[in-house]
Amino acid sequence: MAIVLHSSPLLWTRLAAMVFACVAFSVxxxxxxxxxxxxxxxxxxWAFSFAGTLLVxxxxxxxxQTRAPVSWKNFPITFACYAxxxxxxxxxxxxxxFLKGSTGPSEIxxxxxxxxxxxxxxxxxxxxxxxxxxxxxxxxxxxxxxxPGLLKVCETFVACIIFVFVSDPVVYDRHDALKYCMSxxxxxxxxxxxxxxxxxxxxxxCLPFPFARFLSAxxxxxxxxxxxxxxxxxxxxxxxxxxxxxxxxxxxxSTMGLCVWDKLMAVxxxxxxxxxxxxADLIYSTRLVFVSA
Length: 293
Prior knowledge:
Number of strands: 0
């Protein structure tokens, strides 16, 4: 089996991202003294990014792209985008839980600082990989290398963060309006994830309708649903008339990480972020339909 090694900016960027992610989780495991499920999440983000990048490098090193059971036009950039988002989340969450107000030994704090720094470097490296790999104007590329494809990755990732915030503790079961918002998050996440899987598996041609028109119709539906959730969620969580709390409780200042009110506010912000992402997705998808036509 021939080994194919072509030096390129993309190769060095992947190697850098892999090394940075490896250092981040190795240092954290060795001397970070992590606790709480948040530490496990950060370790997962770095280890998953490292393992996936190593797999991509090995496949391309041995020239196995054509034998891979996935579309190699779509998989590497999809993974790189998820890895960038995972490392970004770890770069924010890790110092919030393990550096903010830390009173432990200075050696442990130094290990945690090193992990945070390399997590940030890994984030930058993965973002650079996405920038290098994304489709240029007029270039023939897989759907996931285009702006709508990358937006789908961001939409599903934001939805996953929302799921984490609303489920620990469960904050959507006290009113039917909040349950509606949760259904919006679930429906849009499932459909966006299905689109990503169809593209990676090269199954878009198996649909009984034009894929481009489906993308445009779905983006319009998602925009309408998320617009309603963007309005409803804050009303039923922060308006006293509907049982909400407008002011941030005093005990939130002494809580490690995020208190319940902070999580509700984070969900409100992330809902608005996803609305903007789906709106951009709609604009790109509509242009795709007209160009195809």
